[in-house]
From TrEMBL:
Coiled coil stretches, renumbered: none
Reaction(s) the record says it catalyses: alpha,alpha-trehalose 6-phosphate + H2O = alpha,alpha-trehalose + phosphate
Keywords: Hydrolase, Magnesium, Metal-binding
Family assignment from sequence similarity: Belongs to the trehalose phosphatase family.
Entry protein name: Trehalose 6-phosphate phosphatase
Species name: Qipengyuania citrea
Enzyme Commission code: 3.1.3.12
GO function terms (MF aspect): trehalose-phosphatase activity
Amino acid sequence: MDGSTTLPAPPVLGELLVQGPVALFLDFDGTLVEIAARPGEIYVPDALAGDLQTLSSRLDGRLALVSGRALDDLAGHLGELAVCRAGSHGASRYLADGTRLGEEPRGLADSSIAELKSYAEDHGLFYEEKAHGGALHFRDQPGKRDATLAFAADFAGSRDLCVTSGKGVIELVRPGATKAAAVEAFMEIAPFAGATPVFIGDDVTDEDGFAGAIKFGGFGIAVGERPSERARYALGSVAAVHHWLEI
Ligand SMILES: O=P(O)(O)OC[C@H]1O[C@H](O[C@H]2O[C@H](CO)[C@@H](O)[C@H](O)[C@H]2O)[C@H](O)[C@@H](O)[C@@H]1O
């Protein structure tokens, strides 16, 4: 496994665009905004939404946000952007004009939500309720990772759910909710089809996004210190991502 810190910096965006059309897939937390103690505590620069809108126009619409967050949560931070987007780890997808791309995944049963909330409460975790899953946050108690993972695996097994893990979080998601599937769905249609996909992300689930980009002839850019299995390039920080995106 390569450490992302040993990976080279990507060629500048302007140079890539001279070679041909590029499709950008951007993760949100840890890539466009810094990680915070709690999901609701992130700092979103005032200019970010407008900058993403402008970047999407520069790419003739070939920009998609691909986040683990639910899309309504993302909209709460960025407003209603007219850019392509996929939330809930890629499961819920929309085109820039608001048209849904594919089926909307099912939400969790009320009884499942109640059980997850109660587990979080009993174990001092923060529970993030999401439209199509649930997240058990242990950022302030890293020692609880393994027990939370074991609980989630057991919980998922009997409920048509899968488990993903990320920075300080274990999540329950619907089967097939991957960032690779989101990249694939966008790359099969205009204006993405035929462009070189570039996926930028910092976390474990972004490895799927990198795989999706590779499948369509593109590559991944890992952000931060986490060693990446699949990225071709790396950028050291959120600030470096903004600089690379020229926003
Ligand atoms: O795919 P992303 O857009 O990066 O979303 C991944 C998860 O991001 C959020 O959690 C992470 O960021 C929080 C705020 O910085 C941090 O407190 C938490 O520890 C991180 O795991 C979000 O809350 C999750 O729903 C996303 O799946």
